[in-house]
Design brief:
Helices cover 19% and strands 31% of the residues. By secondary structure, the protein is of the alpha+beta class. It has one domain: Alpha-Beta Plaits (2-Layer Sandwich), CATH 3.30.70. It has a 7-stranded mixed β-sheet with strand order 2-1-7-3-4-6-5. The longest helix is centred in the last third of the chain and has 10 residues. It is globular and about 35 Å long. The N and C termini lie far apart (29 Å).
Length: 118
Amino acid sequence: MAPRKRPDYEIKLDTAGTFSAGQIIPDIRYDAVKEEYDIRLKEWDEGIVQVTGGKRELIRSFLEEKRYVVTPVYYHYHVRARGKKVDSAAISQKVKDLGLKFLWARVIGEPAPDKNRE
């Protein structure tokens, strides 16, 4: 069995200024700083989004108002949209409006979380 390749992340937005937009970082670098953020938003090309961080509960009602399917999984929310793609930019704007320390990244090289998990 081949070892699992760890993903890379393309930074979309970092309100702390640690990374610049468009920067590609390895999983180990992401893991080293992730706990420093109030909310982290990871997205996959398949339209699945994961919201993580100690203050994720502050945007749960916003996600539900948008009629997204929000599935709590351990310390994350898996967010999906019915018949459309999740609007990550709108989520990002909501988090920015709250003034939280925020990191938004696109996952590269890892399959999306199970789309059928409830």
